[in-house]
Task: structure prediction
Amino acid sequence: MQITGIDYATVKELGVTGRYLNADHIAPVLRKWARKFSVAESGKSVLGEPIFRLTLGTGPISILMWSQMHGNESTTTRAVTDLIAFLGTENSLARDLLKACTITILPMLNPDGARAYTRINAAGIDLNRDARDLSQPESVVLRKEFERVAPDFCFNLHDQRTIFNVGASASPATVSFLAPAFDEKRSVAGCRELSMKLIAGINHRLQQLIPGQVGRYDDTFNPNCVGDSFQSLNTPTVLFEAGHYPGDYERERTREYIFHALLQALQLIATGDLSESSTDHYFAIPENNKRYLDILVRNPALLNGQWEEGISLGIQFKEVLQGDTVRFQPRLEEAGLLQDKFGHLVLDCSRESDLKEIRRNSELLLLLN
Result:
């Protein structure tokens, strides 16, 4: 099986766009692919919305992946629809992957949270902290699927906030990974070692696309987290985190990189070719830091004398659902020297062009005044 690049534009699922993605938006995708792949209901959410699964391929290697466990994290769901579209083609690589693997996908584990655009489910529970209690129907669905398919690998698909940078650099963490720990010691052995090697192999591909923009997530052990729980059950599990690409608040560019990451992961698993990867390569991926602000305003005293000279203002966007659109509302996060902070947008009030930009933005101007 040859590991090659794919022309993403030819497989992108054009019917699924935007940060707001609920069950109504992916229903046409499920209907379309039900003609080629198995689509079935795995259970229902707190509010009775169906939770669907797709099964693709007939191979001996079993892979389970789930997305939108947090309802307001839709980037990986969109990337999953692109992956399904690719696997539905007559491309020789797609055919080889389907012969080697049986892939079970829960594209939207938390449909209630997706509809409300919230992290939690309708009962107010973070499903990624319910691995032991299994107190929610959505958690039970995932565990039953885990037991039913007995996966050889699990992919836990999420979004992360815009605050993350890679290591000490000013590069945003566009994609991040974690091989979850299976014990308090964060031991490196067995299934976790395999997860690390797989991530290292994925990173090798992503460095060709977004060099320096791949981070490694914190690996503090939490038995309530699903990834840690499945890892402790001796199943290699990989956490995917879709982050920020410059200027891409809709995360359409990040979506593309998650697609490539998923495809690379499947290719490496199907071929069994992890010989060139090592845990050292995994640990060489810099850890994420939290040094980014959405907007960093320098010298605000030149705009409004109420601000102390020499300080800067850090602004983060709050994502607010209005109708079917997610709006990014600026909120003042911190004020101070902020010398260790980066801004996805830096506005310096000592520059006339930046002052004009601030004055054109009524929300931002009101916040700074």
User: Anything to note?
Assistant: Residues 190-209 form the longest helix (20 residues). The mean pLDDT is 96.
